[in-house]
Amino acid sequence: MSLDPIRQSSLSDQVVERLRTEIVEGRWRVGERIPPEPELIADLGVARGTLREAIRALQYSGMLDVRRGDGTFVTARSEVPGALARSGGSIGDVLEARAAIEPQLARLAAERADDDDIARIAEALEYRSFVTAEPPTRENAAVWAQADAAFHEEVARAAHNPILFEIYAALLPRLRESVESAITRDGFSREDPRGHEEVLEAIRRRDSEAAGASASANLAATERWDHAERAGAASR
Fold first, then answer.
1. What is the CATH number of the domain that holds 191?
2. pTM for the whole thing?
3. Which H, E and C letters describe the chain, residue by residue?
4. Count of structural domains, the chain
5. Which PROSITE patterns does the annotation name (predicted)?
6. Domain co-membership, 68 together with 106
7. Are residues 34 and 149 in the same domain?
8. In the list 52, 79, 212, 231, which could disulfide-bond 107, CB 3.0-4.6 Å?
């Protein structure tokens, strides 16, 4: 079997690699706006079309998000989020993925979190409690979902496992989407409203088993609601 000859990479491919390196090595952090187009064109010495082609490629991969009128933002340090976004899957699929990861992250956070980590988790929980004090509606669904995801992200960060955090960070966009979708469905309810508080309390006590159990129980309550809602929809 013969192999195809190696082709010289295109200029846009080289720009993709340069921009990707800035993200992967942390010089452009997740959530930050990358430099404006004129600055990048000048720094890289390429045409506008070449730069835009590279940015489109990184947007497709899930690493960048182009927001019209606001700039281009880093959304992930790897291509995993893009792959997850294209994989499809139901709310139930996302819940199963969370159930495989979140309890272990909570256990590790209870063992490894420092005072700053715990303060960030508590702050995220306080904001979540403020936002979710009002019943979820289609109007506040995105804010509701973001506040919920922010709490889980801080717990994941406090686990101090960079590989697990990278995997979980890649799941966060799907988590937000699934929560936003769930809370706008008729009959949504939270069976265990103190589940998140119990996770934080266990982390503060350095009780890893309780932290993992609370995370599992919180997800199980949501899974029970999802199964019941889907069963009801199928019978209608």
1. 1.20.120.530
2. 0.72
3. CCCCCCCCCCHHHHHHHHHHHHHHCCCCCCCCECCCHHHHHHHHCCCHHHHHHHHHHHHHHCCEEEECCCEEEECCCCCHHHHHHHHCCCHHHHHHHHHHHHHHHHHHHHHHCCHHHHHHHHHHHHHHHHHCCCCCCCCCHHHHHHHHHHHHHHHHHHCCCHHHHHHHHHHHHHHHHHHHHHHCCCCCCCCCCCHHHHHHHHHHHCCHHHHHHHHHHHHHHHHHHHHHHHHHHHHC
4. 2
5. HTH_GNTR
6. no
7. no
8. 212
